[in-house]
């Protein structure tokens, strides 16, 4: 951090000012002039919270994608299909047993099994042929999309939020002051906050597992140089299968989350594939902190964009990608 | 990269002895003359439905896939945004020209709207290419896919220019010299002329100094840079050319359907273009057209065919996906590669019947 400040003082200053402005916008009571210029504070705060929680969901999808790419150089364009598959499994479990948590567990296990099978049956045969693997994932995504359309139809599904998470809670953030002088606090759906906290917890756990455990050490070594790692006697194929299964499982969990937040339908797979592509391009391929930062930026940009410039929201996301590619082609937090 | 490269090496080895490098390969090939003759007299053979729905559509899709083949086969850059460029040019024809949505269309005559659309779409594709060449290899697919998907969602959201998810309908088609150029037979010849032009342009470029340098860049960018070639400039120029080809196909497409909507630039359609090119074979310009013919035939007749087999007729995408997977698994050079391998196998068996040294 201090090295960054030393090397790029101007950028550091801009970043600090931007953070300060953002904090002020979130915590201060807006003066009337500002409310007239850009609208109510409640709208702004809602967009920010939606953006952050959407960022949590994007992080869940993109972290699996980036983990798989980082270790195996496999751009898994079927990742969106795994997301949708997990969502449908979660929906089926949730409606048949009524348990939301069980839906997560089964979705994780089943998508992980699918991912592991893909690695064993398909990708192991074409190791080192990046382009061919990517083509295969494209073909698989078409096949999966059609199979899921066959099985589940074109309807919208929404996973029922469990009773103990239904309803909004009040957050200690003032959105406005009533004429009587009484402050109005922000009310926000509890389930989104819980899911956001859970995705942060998963992210931190992944970071700890990667940086503090033996298996994490093996994976990091594999990201840097998998040939040398294999030469030291690590059973690299086993590591590959485990990482692929874990990354796919994360996509499955994200599917259940997405099904609760929004809805599941054919086409969502492409949406989340695009989101994870942009997130990892912005954050840096193969980097978990990069995926977190990218997901936050893209989630915020998408939600703020859809509130303030509705018909050009996607352009904001896209411009961020262009900007990052022109300044730092390897992504914000990538090492190489 | 490796996909095109391996196949290119195999093909190169097989055909090097037969043809001198500097002539049109079609001149001494009787099959090529026969195909050209059949294409020219097609309106006598085929009725309106076959002429437009099968052959004109094949040629249009083939031209789009040809632009991808040029990038992937000669430049080693697999771009998934070729359909997006074509769709952009189609939208521009609708926006600048005459259409049923009078509040959006500017009402320019076609001879002004089309060059404008071509120029804008080429600029769009070149900018996208300039973005994509900032990274290498496998990243190209991701960036171009992101561009394509972003364009799809943008056309869906934006009502001021792209008219949201309803798109722009009743696009006017050219009408001059007393000929309605969208009538079946004239339109077929327009499409055929454009496709042939693009085909021979690609064929010519692949043997021109620029194309040879581009193939050098594909095989070993570092060495080409050391030789003094500007690697990125060659790649961006390749994107510019491919964008122009795709833009031409886009203009033809909007004239063909007379409407354009986000559905025609969806991510699935972008991927279809890749499938067409890969199934046909991305090492030679004829590949995309073969792939397009297979794709269009499947798309048109799969329903009847599947129903006749007693299966669900709606599983066309499944068929396409499985076929694509099979091609990627077993042939690095699509259908042409399979055919060529079969031919070599036959020849080897004829020349020395004992030589069973299969390669694969």
TrEMBL record, chain A:
Signal peptide annotation: none
Membrane topology: Multi-pass membrane protein
Similarity annotation: Belongs to the binding-protein-dependent transport system permease family. LivHM subfamily.
Keyword annotations from UniProtKB, A to Z: Amino-acid transport, Cell membrane, Membrane, Transmembrane, Transmembrane helix, Transport
Protein name: Branched-chain amino acid ABC transporter permease
Compartments it resides in: Cell membrane
Cross-referenced PANTHER family: ABC TRANSPORTER ATP-BINDING PROTEIN (PTHR11795:SF442), BRANCHED-CHAIN AMINO ACID TRANSPORT SYSTEM PERMEASE PROTEIN LIVH (PTHR11795)
Membrane-spanning segments: 12-31, 43-68, 75-93, 99-123, 135-157, 190-210, 238-261, 273-300, 307-327
InterPro entries for the chain: ABC_transp_permease, BCAA_transport_permease
Automatic annotation (TrEMBL), chain B:
Matching Pfam families: BPD_transp_2
Ranges annotated as spanning the membrane: 32-56, 68-96, 108-131, 138-155, 187-205, 236-257, 263-282, 289-310, 316-339
Keyword Cell membrane: yes
Places the protein is found: Cell membrane
Keywords: Cell membrane, Membrane, Transmembrane, Transmembrane helix
Protein name as annotated: Branched-chain amino acid ABC transporter permease
Membrane topology type: Multi-pass membrane protein
InterPro entries: ABC_transp_permease, LivM-like
Domain of life: Bacteria
Electron transport found in the keyword field: no
């Amino acid at each position: 951090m201090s090295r960054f400040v030393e090397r790029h003082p101007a950028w550091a200053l801009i970043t600090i000012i931007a953070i300060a402005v953002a904090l002020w916008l979130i915590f201060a009571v807006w003066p009337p002039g500002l409310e007239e210029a850009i609208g109510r504070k409640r709208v702004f705060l809602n967009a920010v919270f939606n953006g952050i929680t959407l960022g949590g969901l994007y992080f869940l999808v993109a972290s699996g994608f980036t983990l798989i790419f980082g270790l195996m150089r496999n751009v898994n364009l079927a990742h969106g299909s795994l997301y949708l598959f997990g969502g449908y499994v979660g929906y089926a479990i949730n409606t048949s047993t009524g348990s939301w948590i069980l839906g997560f567990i089964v979705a994780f296990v089943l998508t992980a099994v699918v991912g592991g099978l893909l690695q064993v049956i398909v990708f192991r045969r074409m190791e080192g042929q990046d382009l061919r693997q990517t083509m295969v994932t494209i073909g698989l995504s078409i096949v999966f999309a059609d199979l899921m359309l066959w099985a589940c139809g074109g309807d919208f599904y929404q996973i029922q939020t469990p009773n103990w998470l239904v309803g909004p809670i009040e957050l200690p953030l003032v959105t406005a002051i009533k004429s009587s002088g009484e402050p109005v606090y922000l009310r926000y759906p509890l389930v989104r906050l819980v899911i956001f906290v859970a995705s942060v917890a998963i992210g931190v756990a992944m970071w700890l597992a990667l940086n503090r455990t033996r298996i994490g050490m093996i994976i990091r070594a594999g990201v840097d140089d998998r040939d040398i790692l294999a030469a030291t006697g690590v059973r690299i194929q086993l590591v590959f299968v485990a990482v692929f299964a874990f990354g796919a499982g994360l996509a499955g969990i994200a599917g259940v989350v997405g099904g609760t937040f929004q809805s599941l339908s054919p086409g969502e797979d492409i949406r989340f594939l695009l989101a994870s592509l942009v997130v990892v391009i912005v954050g840096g391929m193969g980097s978990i902190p990069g995926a977190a930062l990218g997901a936050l930026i893209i989630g915020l940009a998408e939600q703020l964009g859809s509130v303030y410039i509705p018909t050009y929201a996607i352009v904001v996301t896209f411009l961020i990608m262009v900007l990052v590619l022109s300044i730092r082609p390897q992504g914000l937090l990538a090492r190489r | 990269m490796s996909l095109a490269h391996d196949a290119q090496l195999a093909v190169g080895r097989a055909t090097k002895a037969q043809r001198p490098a500097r002539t049109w390969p079609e001149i001494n090939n009787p099959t090529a003359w026969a195909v050209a003759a059949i294409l020219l007299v097609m309106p006598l053979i085929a009725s309106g439905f076959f002429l437009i729905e099968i052959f004109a559509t094949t040629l249009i899709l083939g031209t789009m896939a040809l632009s991808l083949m040029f990038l992937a086969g000669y430049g080693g850059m697999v771009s998934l945004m070729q359909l997006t460029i074509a769709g952009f040019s189609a939208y521009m024809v609708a926006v600048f020209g005459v259409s049923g949505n009078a509040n959006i269309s500017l009402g320019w005559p076609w001879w002004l709207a089309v060059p404008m659309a071509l120029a804008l779409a080429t600029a769009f594709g070149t900018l996208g290419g300039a973005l994509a060449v900032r990274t290498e290899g496998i990243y190209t697919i991701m960036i171009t896919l992101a561009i394509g998907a972003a364009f799809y969602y943008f056309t869906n959201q934006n009502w001021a220019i792209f008219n949201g998810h309803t798109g722009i309908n009743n696009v006017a088609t050219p009408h001059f010299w007393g000929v309605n150029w969208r009538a079946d037979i004239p339109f077929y010849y327009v499409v055929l002329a454009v496709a042939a032009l693009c085909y021979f342009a690609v064929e010519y470029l692949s043997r021109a100094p620029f194309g040879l340098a581009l193939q050098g860049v594909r095989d070993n960018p570092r060495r080409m840079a050391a030789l003094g070639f500007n690697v990125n400039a060659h790649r961006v120029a390749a994107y510019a050319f491919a964008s122009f080809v795709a833009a031409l196909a886009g203009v033809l497409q909007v004239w063909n359907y007379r409407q354009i909507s986000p559905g025609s630039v969806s991510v699935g359609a972008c991927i279809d273009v890749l499938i067409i090119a890969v199934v046909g074979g991305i090492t030679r310009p004829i590949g995309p057209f073969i792939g397009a013919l297979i794709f269009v035939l499947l798309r048109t007749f799969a329903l009847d065919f599947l129903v006749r087999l007693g299966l669900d007729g709606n599983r066309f995408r499944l068929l396409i996906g499985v076929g694509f997977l099979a091609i990627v698994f077993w042939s690095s050079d699509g259908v042409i590669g399979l055919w060529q391998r079969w031919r070599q196998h036959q020849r080897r068996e004829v020349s020395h019947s004992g030589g069973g040294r299969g390669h694969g």
